[in-house]
Structures are given as structure tokens and as C-alpha cells.
Amino acid sequence: MAALTDQTVRELIQKAFAARRFAYTPYSHFQVGAALLTQDGRVYTGCNIENASYTPTVCAERTALFKAVSEGERRFSAIAIVGSREGERNRLITSPCGVCRQALFEFGGPDLVVILAKSEEDYLQTTLGELLPYGFGPANLND
Ligand code: THU
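A: This is the predicted complex of the input protein with tetrahydrodeoxyuridine.
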């Protein structure tokens, strides 16, 4: 797959910030947005959605992933993630939790590009293979 252009990275980060505005976070007050790029160039966004019973809480990354998969998408090339406490600037990058890494691995595999952004200009670009080395995926069951 062709490398992501700076413009694509910028757009994904913008969309992740836009999605974060819908985060439902009355308990942690930590708001996350994600923008997931398909190999065909479509973008699905997600935010975290918390719950009074806590464990049903879903992260922004899985919201975006499940929206996309439920609409027939299975091939992804990149995801941008932004997170911070309500009303604050992004002081740190927000890295996907272990459950989200595993969920993304199912469809993205190790080559999925992961953009962890504080702003449009300040981001770290890595891959899911770096974040989840030796990941367990569909290939393990098909051998
Ligand atoms: N969260 C995400 O949405 N994505 C991450 O990558 C890390 C954590 C959410 C879950 C919860 O609503 C809040 O952030 C605090 O953990």
C-alpha cells in the first residue's frame, strides 16, 4: 500500500478531533476520538461511550472499527487517535488499550498505520505490529 500523504494524516487527525466532540464521558471525563481509514479511502470515526455500569464502556477505536465493519468494511490502512481530559489540550498521546489493539489486529493486521496525535502538527506514527508484536489473529486459527 502507498505511504500516507501528509494531507491524509492531517485529515485523519482533524476527523478524530471532530469525533471526540461526541465523546460521552461523565465518569472519566477523558475524551477520545478516532478516525479509521479504509483501503478504499473512506473514513469511519468514533468516540468513547461510557456507561454507569462502567464495564460496558467502549473506546473510540472500537466504536470506529465496529461502525465500519458493520457497514461491510474489512480492509483498513490507518487510524488516527486523539485524547485528553474534557476541556484540556492534548498533553500526551493517547495510545490504544490492549483490547482495542487486539480488535484492530483482526482486520488491520500488523501493517495498520497508527497515528497518535496531540495536534495536526504533533503526532507519532507507528504500526499496529509495533504496538502488538506477535499478535494473535485469524491466521493462527487457519493454519
Ligand atoms: N479510552 C479510549 O476511548 N481509547 C483509548 O485508547 C484509551 C481509553 C477511553 C475509555 C474510557 O472511556 C476513557 O478513555 C478512560 O479510560
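Residues 27 and 53 are 10 Å apart (CA to CA). The pocket of tetrahydrodeoxyuridine is lined by residues 25, 28, 30, 32, 48, 50, 57, 59-61, 81, 94, 96-97, 100 (CB under 6 Å).
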